[in-house]
Amino acid sequence: MKVRSKTSALLLLIALQTLFSIHAMGQELKKPTLEDLTPGGETYRYAENLYGIQWWGDHCVKPTIDTLYLIDPKTGKENVVTTRKAVNEVFEKNQVGKLQHFQNATFPWKDKPLMLLYISGKYITYNFRENQITNVVDLEKGATNSDFCASTGKVAYTVGNNLFVNDRQITSEPEGIVCGQSVHRNEFGIRKGTFWSPKGERLAFYRMDESMVTQYPLVDITARIGEVNNIRYPMAGMTSHQVSVGIYTPASGQTVYLQTGDPTDRYFTNISWSPDAKSLYLIELNRDQNHARLCQYDAATGQLTAVLFEEKHAKYVEPSHPIVFLPWDATQFIYQSQRDGFNHLYLYNTQGDLLKQLTSGSWLVQEVLGFDPLKKEVIIASTERSPLQSNLYRINLKNSKRTPIGNSEGVHRAQLSSSGRYVIDNYSTPTTPRNIELIDTEKGRSQRLLTAKDPFAGFQMPTIETGTIKADDGVTDLYYRLIKPADFDPTKKYPAIVYVYGGPHAQMITEGWMNGARGWDIYMANKGYIMFTVDNRGSENRGLAFENSTFRRLGVEEGKDQLKGAEYLRSLSYVDGNRIGVHGWSFGGYMTTALLLRYPEVFKVGVSGGPVIDWAYYEVMYGERYMDTPQTNPEGYKETNLKNLAGNLKGRLLLIHDDHDDTCVSQHTLSFIKACVDARTYPDLFIYPGHKHNVMGRDRVHLHEKITHYFEDHL
Asked: Could you say which of 464, 474, 619, 647 would form a disulfide bridge with 679 (CB–CB 3.0 to 4.6 Å)?
């Protein structure tokens, strides 16, 4: 009996272990779905964050839905400031709306216990110490592009194509002219159309005359009879809009315009004020974008006071940052330039004399965060440690000594406190979704506020590798990312998909979370594909020569580098070299199409989203910077026009376009389809109605399902 009992117990133990192993294997085999991996998905998983965290002077503010906290940066201790319930009691009493959460609150007054809230068309200033409203500004119905001035409490905003300040209409323009909005199609770092002086005495604003620009028709198919929505879209080499800059003085109600001369074929960018508001500075750029001038204008008269200095380049100059005055010296400012091959900081005086170059080296300054006036230091983010990283530094303006701030790994995004003593450091590494820390920049001490959990803990995830290959020039190192299935078997042969962007101002491989891999890359790797991305010459964060090597021949050198990536894939024993696909969107859509047409023996299947096909159909500012005009560069436009290569298509190509794309108009895709019909080649086409230059929201899951099905069916 005892023997039988022992045997039975042993069998039971084995059975339980087997069941446990099967259960554990089932757990291990759980893979994230597109719903988990795609923004807009019902179960989209993302790294935890502290939304709306910011500075009030040197106090860290942590807003939540129901409670507002202050955090001491020295100790990390949290204190409750106020609650949503308390605020809404005051709001209800004053009938100004209802606060849903604190995460959109801002704290523009560093020395006053006030927060700013925008609710139901009202800017509400609220004293969180005394729990009372101190000011309310009602905006006109239909207000957009609002710009609040903390110094005066006034708000500049637009309604339609006109500019308002509080309840006063500043401009009255006919159709085709807009005021107070972003201009030059958001190139040159332009993101807004109004600029308050430091104390709010004056307001600079853009006025853009588009009446001479050809209207481009977009069709709204939601109406029973489709309705035409015209946009102003200046194509390369065609007549462009004309921009001027006005200065409005609220005290007098008067507006003057800068006397820039004829604004035809010129760009006015990077507007900034002198500390005393007597001068307005901007960078004027010619249409060829190879000659920039830093200009000073008299704010009272609009007259040109001085051209402080000029900058030229044989290919292009790309000013993207306004000058920044030193808080402790109104006669000196910092100017950013790529003149030595990398974006660096230069210290000038207001006479236009170069005092010193503050940073130098084969790396670039990505952002100026602000200043520590007490120590006379500027705080920056840069790629000094690695082109794949973004790290924080203090720079002493006397001796240019750089001192690192915070963790030396990963990609850092930071906010500087008003004194420059502390930063909120929000960063990730390949294996860390997010850390948020408060750092004392002087003593180096930090307080951890958040360590985000891995949103895919418990899921079976692929492995991610990074490395370098040589560019087509045989000299330049290119960074790549390679993703293998979680159940990778080195004895098998896998199909591979190249995800590509390849254009300026984008970098696909980083040392941030998952090395910058997208959710769809993870999903496809788990489905049994080798996913590969390489940042070719022409992409971001590698310096001017790396970027402008593609000048006047967009897509050609980039394609050669992508071919090197494909050759590397084919050299791997576990990659099926006869099954290499490619996918990209926008510039990446252009690259996808070009790769299938130029290298049809290598790339067998492609999905091209929102592609450029012919640079002559693309807009003036971006297109002419990198291609010049069709009139001055006919050979380049012919070489890069993919319609001319339509007969080369051998593999399977799906083109996807949004019917309301106002960035890369659908004429690109439709004209390519016509060229393929003429050449007797057979691409596929899918349209997303109602979207612009990308597919967002719930439809984004559908988009990636569509892309996935295409590769599953044909690769």
From this structure: 647
Q: Is the pTM of this model over 0.85?
A: yes
Residue at token pair 């408060």:
438
Rounded-to-integer distance, Cα 4 and Cα 88, Å: 73
Q: How far apart are CA 270 and CA 292, in angstroms?
A: 11
Q: Which CATH architecture has domain 47-138?
A: Beta Barrel (2.40)
pLDDT tens digits, one per residue of 103-145? 999 999 999 999 999 999 999 999 999 999 999 999 999 999 9
Bridge partners, residue 422, by sequence: 440
Between CA 468 and CA 473, with CA 471 as vertex, the angle to 5 degrees is 145
Of 661, 668, 691, 704, which is the active-site residue?
661
693 is catalytic: yes
Domains 47-138 and 154-320 share a fold: no
What is the tens place of the pLDDT at every residue in 275-302?
A: 999 999 999 999 999 999 999 999 999 9
Helix, strand, or coil (residue 369): strand
Among residues 207, 206, 300, the alpha carbon closest in space to that of 252 is found at: 300
Residue 367: what pLDDT?
A: 98
Q: Determine which one of 417, 586, 608, 666 is catalytic.
A: 586
User: How much is the mean pLDDT over the chain?
Assistant: 95
- Whether 639 and 553 have beta carbons less than 8 Å apart is answered as yes
Among the listed residues 693, 699, 702, 714, the single catalytic one is 693
Fold category of 154-320 in CATH: Methanol Dehydrogenase; Chain A (2.140.10)
Q: Establish whether 661 is a catalytic residue.
A: yes
Q: Which CATH superfamily is domain 463-714 in?
A: Alpha/Beta hydrolase fold, catalytic domain (3.40.50.1820)
Query: How many CA within 13 A on the CB side of residue 142?
Result: 7
Give dist(CA 61, CA 55) in Å, integer.
6
Does the annotation mark 668 as catalytic? no
Q: Are 685 and 675 in contact (CB under 8 A)?
A: no
Give domain limits for the chain: 47-138, 154-320, 463-714
Q: pLDDT class for 28, splitting at 50, 70, 90?
A: low
